[in-house]
């Protein structure tokens, strides 16, 4: 059976999709969602990954871990499992492998342990915009070190550009500026064309959403605090968490916006916001020039003119008519990425994986440096040796003895110690 699991990784969560036997790709979900918050709980032989671990973390359980990409910066941090002390960076590996075991047992109906599949398991990583290059390398190294050799990285933006180009949305001859909003941070990436690597990047704190989205999130958090005064809330964190939820609310805006909002602790709280109050606050928003300046600076760095650049709004927090209208006042080409564009991009990614027969692309070997060839010199003339004197009459001359130099003495090579790689133990199955 041919199959593949794709994992999308961001600072706050991971998401899973899979494809098997050339069927359509599908989300790999446990319970309701295929998106798992990046929290871990380890106590003795108990290992929990996801929402239940987040609940323990928010209750300040000393065995619970959050903010993964922050805590791994401290090399002294460790956790213990099965009686073994492990560096805290391996939490991610144990969490992901728990999902891979779930996939084998419940989707493929395999009874074997994940250990027997590691070497050939087709695993693909899709890194979100907020993951830095050194963090990508760390994650990949964790799995290669554990014996995952059919491992590869998916370049989402490149495939997205190709899909939009085939639809005639992005012209092939123009540069592309991709804007993405994650946790209220606006990421800007400039590409010289749809096939090139980025030639410039920027990030703007506090600008990663349509202003209405951020204002609505702020108002919802304020309402929840007012109604639940006992709560200890990090307001900035909760606003960032609510941005995708608020973006969906504004798709069909009504005079009274109400419902249940889920905060970072996983609990839902009822809210009620007046749309007129939202509009009143919007009048005082005046940060448009900050984004304009960032875009202009990137274009200047890339020696590009505005009319030769296509601006693409890549995430739901900024893929709104309000945000695009603001940009269209200054820039000629602005387009929102639609849900159908994202679905077709994922479809194209899995089609490429299937076309490769679910094998990782071989890494191109680095060519050895070409050394310059020295100019040939004419051979030196042979030294003139005077002819031997003729022997005296009656004397006997012994034949010349040829002296053969001794070969260098062969020394036994030093034995090379081979330290076998000790694979991490199998994470416990869910429910054990």
List the helices and strands and how they pair.
Blueprint: E1 3-9, E2 13-20, E3 26-27, E4 35-37, E5 40-43, E6 46-49, H1 51-58, E7 64-65, H2 68-71, E8 78-81, E9 84-87, H3 90-106, E10 123-127, H4 133-145, E11 151-153, H5 156-166, E12 175-182, E13 185-191, E14 198-205, H6 211-227, H7 235-249, E15 256-262, E16 268-274, H8 275-282, H9 288-301, E17 309-313, H10 321-328, E18 334-336, H11 339-355
Parallel strand pairs: 1-10, 10-11, 12-17, 17-18
Antiparallel strand pairs: 1-2, 2-3, 2-4, 5-6, 5-7, 8-9, 12-13, 13-14, 15-16
Helix content: 25-40%
- Order of SSEs: EEEEEEHEHEEHEHEHEEEHHEEHHEHEH
Number of domains: 3
Average pLDDT taken over every residue:
84
Q: What structural category do the secondary elements indicate?
A: alpha+beta
Number of strands: 18
Per DSSP, the total helix count is 11
Span of the ends, CA to CA: 28 Å
Instruction: Give the percentage of residues in beta strands.
Output: 15-25%
Identify the CATH class of the largest domain: Alpha Beta
CATH superfamily of the largest domain: ATPase, nucleotide binding domain
Q: Could you tell me the radius of gyration in angstroms?
A: 32 Å
């Amino acid at each position: 059976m041919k199959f593949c699991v794709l994992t999308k990784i961001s600072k706050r969560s991971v998401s899973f999709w899979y494809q098997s036997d050339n069927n359509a790709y599908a989300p790999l979900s446990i319970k309701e969602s295929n998106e798992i918050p990046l929290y871990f709980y380890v106590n003795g032989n108990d290992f929990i990954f996801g929402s239940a671990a987040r609940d323990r973390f928010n209750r300040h359980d000393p065995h619970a871990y959050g903010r993964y990409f922050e805590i791994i910066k401290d090399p002294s941090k460790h956790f213990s499992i099965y009686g073994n002390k492990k560096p805290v960076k391996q939490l991610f590996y144990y969490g992901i492998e728990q999902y891979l075991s779930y996939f084998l047992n419940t989707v493929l109906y395999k009874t074997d342990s994940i250990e027997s599949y590691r070497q050939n398991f087709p695993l693909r990583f899709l890194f979100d915009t907020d993951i830095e290059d050194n963090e990508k390398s760390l994650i990949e190294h964790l799995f290669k070190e554990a014996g995952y050799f059919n491992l590869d990285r998916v370049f989402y933006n490149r495939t997205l550009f190709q899909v939009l180009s085939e639809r005639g949305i992005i012209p092939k001859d123009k540069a592309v500026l991709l804007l993405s909003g994650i946790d209220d941070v606006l990421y800007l990436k400039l590409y010289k064309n749809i096939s090139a690597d980025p030639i410039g990047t920027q990030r703007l704190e506090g600008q990663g959403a349509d202003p209405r989205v951020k204002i609505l999130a702020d108002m919802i958090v304020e309402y929840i605090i007012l109604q639940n005064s006992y709560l200890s809330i990090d307001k900035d964190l909760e606003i960032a968490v609510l941005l995708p939820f608020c973006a969906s609310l504004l798709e069909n805006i009504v005079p009274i916006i109400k419902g249940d909002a889920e905060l970072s602790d996983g609990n839902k709280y009822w809210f009620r916001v007046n749309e007129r109050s939202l509009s009143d606050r919007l009048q005082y928003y005046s940060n448009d020039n900050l984004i304009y300046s960032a875009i202009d600076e990137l274009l200047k760095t890339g020696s590009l003119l505005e009319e030769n650049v296509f601006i693409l709004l890549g995430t739901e927090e900024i893929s709104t008519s309000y945000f695009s209208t603001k940009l269209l006042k200054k820039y000629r080409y602005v387009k929102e990425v639609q849900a159908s564009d994202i679905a077709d991009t994922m479809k194209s990614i899995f089609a490429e994986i299937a076309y490769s027969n679910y094998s990782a692309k071989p890494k191109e070997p680095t060519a050895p440096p070409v050394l310059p060839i020295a100019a040939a010199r004419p051979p030196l003339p042979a030294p003139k040796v005077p002819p031997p004197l003729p022997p005296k009459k009656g004397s006997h001359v012994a034949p010349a003895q040829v002296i053969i130099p001794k070969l260098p003495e062969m020394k036994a090579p030093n034995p090379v110690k081979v330290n076998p790689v000790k694979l991490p133990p199998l994470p416990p199955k869910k429910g054990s």
